[in-house]
Amino acid sequence: MKSFVDLNTRFTTFVQKIVNEHYATFDKENIRDMTDSLIDHCEGQEKIVGIVNDLFGAGSLRRLYQELKSNVIRNRKPRLSDKPNLPLLEAFILELFRHSSFPHFQRHVSNGYFIPKDTCVFINQWQINHDPEQWEDPSSFNPDRFLSADGTEVNKAEGEKVTTFGMGKRRCIGEIIARNEVYLFLTVDMTPEYGLTMKHKDCRLKARMRTRDEQ
């Protein structure tokens, strides 16, 4: 609960900064975006911060939904072959990997430190994926950092900078399977059916097996 409260506090602070910047540069004759429009029509900065806060989360999911709807043939489930047509989803997954960086190491090994033979070395994944010299505003969740200017393709070079599955000869051998599993999981319809318990309309495992069979 403390982590959840902290996350909300930091996100609200982030949104507050955006709203403050819009207030400082607001021009009634030049409405630039949704935030400017809210300033023009609403009274109370706190109310605007709350609305923008809600729009951030909902907007990201809606963009993913629209991409799936536009690029996957109706009446069938997404397939691995659809991935090249879903750059936003791929960028979202890359940012998910970069931002989460689940092995949370923050200590550094000094340059020039002698590492004896057979020593087990762990990559400081967190530091690499949150290095401000490598990433613009690394603490924010922003899938667009991996997209081209027109949003039609993923910048492969930027994607390679994300170290989620290790490096070198010890790189995780299950990387390809894991990436595909995350992709398929995110494209499954999570709408539940009601009964004695809530369950998904289509079993995830069955959906994945069917998708692989179709390939």
UniProtKB/TrEMBL annotation:
Enzyme Commission numbers on file: 1.14.14.1
Entry keyword Protein transport: no
Key words of the record: Endoplasmic reticulum, Heme, Iron, Metal-binding, Microsome, Monooxygenase, Oxidoreductase
Top EC class for this record: oxidoreductase
Entry cofactors: heme
SUPFAM superfamilies, per database record: Cytochrome P450
Location in the cell: Endoplasmic reticulum membrane; Microsome membrane
GO cellular component terms, semicolon-separated: endoplasmic reticulum membrane
Gene3D superfamilies assigned: Cytochrome P450
Binding site for heme: 172
Lyase found in the keyword field: no
GO biological process: hormone biosynthetic process; progesterone metabolic process
GO terms assigned for molecular function: heme binding; iron ion binding; steroid 17-alpha-monooxygenase activity
Membrane topology type: Peripheral membrane protein
InterPro entries in UniProt: Cyt_P450, Cyt_P450_CS, Cyt_P450_E_grp-I, Cyt_P450_sf
Similarity comment: Belongs to the cytochrome P450 family.
Record's protein name: unspecific monooxygenase
